[in-house]
Amino acid sequence: MQDLLHAFKEWLIEEGKSPKTMESYVGDVAKFQAYMVEKVVDSRQPLSRFSFVRYKQHLIDNGYAVATINKKINSLKVYNDFLQKKWYYVKKINT
């Protein structure tokens, strides 16, 4: 997963994202991946709407503010865009 995060960061650089934006996106994705490893039997499964919904509910249950949840979900949408463009996964996630 670290290789994928590194590739994501490189893609963000290519896309011209600011260092703070990259830090935010990569951090949010890393936390999502850690959640998936902890909660899901096979963490290698592709992103799905269901995994987004479960993660969002996890954030709500843990008292995150709506704005923070929305930011984290947006980071995951950008990550999904990266996966699509780099041919890791081809299905678009609609949340």
From TrEMBL:
<feature type="domain" description="Core-binding (CB)">
    <location>
        <begin position="1"/>
        <end position="84"/>
    </location>
</feature>
<dbReference type="GO" id="GO:0003677">
    <property type="term" value="F:DNA binding"/>
</dbReference>
<dbReference type="InterPro" id="IPR044068">
    <property type="entry name" value="CB"/>
</dbReference>
<dbReference type="GO" id="GO:0015074">
    <property type="term" value="P:DNA integration"/>
</dbReference>
<dbReference type="InterPro" id="IPR004107">
    <property type="entry name" value="Integrase_SAM-like_N"/>
</dbReference>
<protein>
    <submittedName>
        <fullName>Site-specific recombinase XerD</fullName>
    </submittedName>
</protein>
<dbReference type="InterPro" id="IPR010998">
    <property type="entry name" value="Integrase_recombinase_N"/>
</dbReference>
<dbReference type="Pfam" id="PF02899">
    <property type="entry name" value="Phage_int_SAM_1"/>
</dbReference>
<keyword id="KW-0238">DNA-binding</keyword>
